[in-house]
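MODEL INPUT / OUTPUT PAIR
PAIR INDEX: 1
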Amino acid sequence: MAMAAPALTFRFFLSHPAHFVALGFGTGLAPWAPGTVATLFAIPLGDWLAVTTTDAGYLAAVAVLFAVGVWAAERTGRDLGVPDHGGIVIDEIVAFLLVMYFAGTSLERVALGFLLFRLFDIAKPPPIRAIDARMKSGLGVMLDDLVAAAMALVAFAVIVRVTGWPA
């Protein structure tokens, strides 16, 4: 029988900078659907990046957050004894920022991108499931969500191309 993942506390969240980042600046403490809460948190962050920086600045912020996320997820997973604890949600934030960068920030585009990203992240079709199962590290935690984002963006492009929506 598998052991239950350890419960997260506010004290643990604040006990190390890696935990603060890995737990999505607090969104990973949500009692239900922390990955979805973290993805929602990425929306105002993506909007803010879109209006305060250039395309290069936005992508640089995503790259830096990805690198910091690898470190934070690795450290936090080790400290929790669970490499990909459900409360580690920096991966959802980074991946959805990337979806927003390519899909756009209009309400309709964000909504479609959100639904597609959550679908791929939760369903974990190949190769996402294989990455999730084999790579028990900070990089693995971050990478499976990047692949989910890429798959969501391909589906997004097909939907826009076929239906013309969202414009």
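PAIR INDEX: 2
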Amino acid sequence: MKDIFTAPFVKGMMKTTANMYRMGWDERNGGNISMMLDNDEVAEYLDINKPIRKIEMGFDAKELIGKIFIVTGTGKYFKNVEDDPECNLGIIRVAEDGVTADLLWGYSDGGRPTSELPAHLMSHISRLHANPENRVIMHSHPTNTLAMTYVHELDEKKFTHSLWEMCTECIVVFPDGIGVLPWMVCGTNEIGIATAEKMKEFRLVIWGQHGIYGCGKDLDEAFGLIETVEKAAQLYLMTAHLPRVNTITDPDLVELAKAFKLDYRKDYLDL
């Protein structure tokens, strides 16, 4: 059996969490990631028939029974994942009852998955229906995106439009727009349900005064979505108080969409 510490999914989580901490997106124990894994690939590194212990998930995830995920731990700091992945990460499989998980590896100090696990699993279900290739759910607290929710209307059309105007690449990277939720108590099933509902049509969901959820086929794609939003939010904050001399107009956005053959939200433009 191969060394689990050489597994691409473990190394990928180590690299991504380090990058997210370095970017300032995940202070202290803020933020969490879950990634659905291929069962056969995991079996090359672990005996998936010998779980370590059971974990209560706090959510009925019957649609995901048998699915395996690598998930950041609750209370864990992203900056520590590289030094001790076995303590700060865990690999779990949704058990046959749908409400517990089998721990296959990790959480070596007796820990458990992020408190946002129900929100992650709900979003995984939504995204698998929308696009079966979406296997990563990523939550973080990007500084400028968070700041923008204090000074911009929390309206999906207006928020998306403001970001599309900031960078030429924005409509190309997220033509499906951004879902937006008002502030809600984190770590609850209520915010998970609301996020999962948005995830049926958006790959990005902003939590007002809190952070962002992004999804993708892999860690790079989810990271890149959030990274693009954060850059646009930074530019918005740098220019919002200044007179607008130039901008990317709605006709410009239409031309971009034509050039890149985008299936975009046409109703988000004012034409």
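PAIR 2 NOTE: The chain has two domains: 1-114, 116-271.
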